[in-house]
């Protein structure tokens, strides 16, 4: 048996037409995606509601999944309707009320030249119970390390796509942040402005306005990010989208991360390592505690994803439908 510590309640995964036991390993070690990161993926969550388990914004995730496949020059083996059906099957098969879902297209076994001319695209999907991404206490506030390395630029790659190989940069950044004693990393872009976390978008709050940046700042415009902008507007909270300088970030009244894995988490402390010549500088954001607007948005977000806000039930796909 394999170690299940980090995949609680996972019992089976779906691969190319059938379910396999979680401990059954079947991907060939010479698969193209394993060697070059030639994969595209989505991270999706499902939540318990009064009508049963519901997947949050499934059509939007699936649309991006297939968009990413197009950027990677993939011809997927299934269409979007089949992928959506498989995702719901996987949640049901694992009897999960709340879970993280990982669909994946990858160039599989065939050849190991850089161009996967003999490697077909295959599809797998898995799900498991996954709690708070940055830890159970992250809701009280997290610390970030501003990295000296810059985010890949939006002129170099299509930032709307979730391309597996590019996430090696996120892995390195995340490890560096933790080596510096912080919970998470923060990238600046080539221009020196705030970009995003390794797997999260960033928001700041200043004078009652909730602000985030856009694709021109070298970010993935996340689905949770879009949801928070809509939730804030619905609550009558002023929002803005535009560049965020490092000075803006450090002078913010509040700041928070958003993302499927992280959900919505306040940022309260910063170590700035962006200029190695200047050394490390430490800052406290706002009061050093989770801010009031962040808390309101976080509470409303969790109400929305669990089906408690009628106008946002449009975001839910019930796995038993």
Summary of the model, kept short:
By secondary structure, the protein is α+β, with helices and mostly antiparallel strands. Helix content is about 25%, strand content about 30%. The mean pLDDT is about 95.
From the spread of the alpha carbons, the general shape counts as globular
Largest sheet: 8 strands, antiparallel
Q: Can you give the helix content as a percent range?
A: 10-25%
- Segments where pLDDT lies below 50 for 5+ residues? none
Individual helix count? 7
How many beta-strand runs?
Answer: 16
**Structural classification:** alpha+beta
Tell me the β content: 25-35%
In round numbers, the mean pLDDT is: 97
Number of domains: 2
CATH class of the largest domain: Alpha Beta
* CATH-level-4 superfamily name of the largest domain: D-amino Acid Aminotransferase, subunit A, domain 2
From the coordinates shown, what is the CATH architecture of the largest domain? Alpha-Beta Barrel
Enter the CATH topology name of the largest domain.
D-amino Acid Aminotransferase, Chain A, domain 2
Taking all Cα atoms into account, the compactness measure Rg is 20 Å
- The secondary-structure element order is EEHEEEHHEEEHEEEHEHEEEHE
Instruction: Report the span from N to C terminus.
Output: 34 Å
